[in-house]
Amino acid sequence: MDNTNITILKIGGSVITDKSADDGAARISEIERIASEIAGFEGKLIIVHGAGSFGHPQVKRFGLTGKFDHEGSVITHMSVRKLNTMVVEALNSAGVYALPVHPMACTVSSNSRIKSMFLEQIKEMLANGFVPVLHGDMVMDTEIGTSVLSGDQIVPYLAIQMKTSRIGIGSAEEGVLDDKGNVIPIINNGNFDEIRAYLGGSANTDVTGGMLGKVLELLELSEQSNSTSYIFNAGNTDNISDFLKGKNIGTAIGTGTIQ
């Protein structure tokens, strides 16, 4: 299949759930708004969404970061599936032929890093006009038993394997912010050291590294694939549709420039 024009859109868990909740609390109106913005996009698209309050509190409750627990693995997986079903149903209601792809069923990690992911079904979905929707999940792990796989790790892996052309990271921030709250327009290896101090974790329970984790994953991606990713606020109306229309918004990470 022609992989040249695949876009990956990550939708942060903090945008589509109340991340401060102790258990899964979806923001249904936000999910529906985002689905309607995506509906106007004609190209090949892979969506990855975060787990938010459907994953992070459960991981914390069962201590699943680097530790194996049968019950915690099952409960966390079933919880994130619920959120994924809501996202997929909203997309289909908006006219997007979305299908769920659960990482638990197609991914194996080793020490919490992706070792292999079965991608053939994703390629066939794209070739036949479907939109695959992946999410943060628990996955089998050759070293630990199971481990947390964040959407922030799925995005760069897919971007390299599928040779995607554009990557958008829809978060709850306007982009990456400096100490005065201003958006940093571009981050690359040249200025990363000086802005690292501004990159804290997430305001709520985030077991996957917050903004610093996102930026590190995307910087590594830019080195491996010569690609540019954009971190922007998916909570602002029209930002997702603007990104999908080709506008460069928020903070660019990698080799590209803000236009």
Automatic annotation (TrEMBL):
ATP binds at residues 10-14, 52, 210, 214. GO terms for biological process: terpenoid biosynthetic process. The keyword Nucleotide-binding applies. It catalyses: isopentenyl phosphate + ATP = isopentenyl diphosphate + ADP. GO terms for cellular component: cytosol. Its EC number is 2.7.4.26. InterPro entries: AceGlu_kinase-like_sf, Asp/Glu/Uridylate_kinase, Fosfomycin_R_FomA-type. CDD domains: AAK_FomA-like. GO terms for molecular function: ATP binding; isopentenyl phosphate kinase activity; kinase activity. The keyword Kinase applies. Substrate binds at residues 51, 56, 151. Residues 6-233 form the Aspartate/glutamate/uridylate kinase domain. Keywords: ATP-binding, Isoprene biosynthesis, Kinase, Nucleotide-binding, Transferase. It comes from the Archaea. It holds the Pfam family AA_kinase. The record marks 19 as: Transition state stabilizer. Belongs to the isopentenyl phosphate kinase family. Homodimer. This is Isopentenyl phosphate kinase. It comes from Methanolobus vulcani. The lineage of its organism: Archaea, Methanobacteriati, Methanobacteriota, Stenosarchaea group, Methanomicrobia.
